[in-house]
Amino acid sequence: MTLLTDQKNTTRLFDLDIQNQTFAEAHQLLMQTARTRGNASRVVVTPNVDHIVRLDQQAEFKQLYSTSDLIFADGMPVVWASKITKHPLPERVTGADLFVSLCRAASNEGLSVFVVGGMPGQETELLAAFARVYPGLQVDLFCPSMQFTPEGAEADEAIRRIRVAKPHIVFICLGMPKQEYFAFRYRREESTDNAPLLMCVGAAMEFALGQKQRAPLWMQKIGMEWFWRLASEPRRLWQRYTTQGVKFFGIFFREYRKQKSQR
After folding, report:
1. Which of 117, 147, 150, 194 is positioned for an S-S bond with 190, CB 3.0–4.6 A?
2. Which of 105, 85, 99, 101 is nearest to 18 (CA)?
């Protein structure tokens, strides 16, 4: 089966090949990927402003991150920035929204999912929440400790459990960069009976199960979801949405000059 992606469907921005697709097209592509076993696992990332800034500061990690199989623009400023390219992105495709749409579709089609995330001891609570929000969804969980490292013993155990469960979709909810490093390790090591789709989605599970509240839809549409999150968790997120935001402007103007010189 031919997958719905190639270089013609991407926009080159911030040294990343970002999928130039609507949310509906992204969902269709990801579900098609999830149904197709026998190929190498595909790593999916969804960069926002914080990610772009951190990648700019970590050249080695950025090089690895750029090898992701599918990259979607999570942050609205990334979509706005794409207007300086020849092929602007049509809309944002967030990890939080993909988590919801893929879980619903997986439940309807009988596909199974595996989640790496949450806190130790939450397994029963999270499984009950999944059963309530997504009735009929086949889901397994591995809740690692805060000491989780992508190359450590807990990662070994997570991979073992994924291997046993044989899910169609793995949601990795560990935050950047742990989730990406774990996904790339899995893709590197698992060549048979592998999960087709590895989704690096941060706090998406918490939003999907109602543990955290997302911004109202109107705020999401005008690119103000960051303000909602900052107001909700100021101590944890103030640096991400202030200092990182300022740094993003510098990165954007550098990208603008580069894009202009290539025309």
Report:
1. 194
2. 85
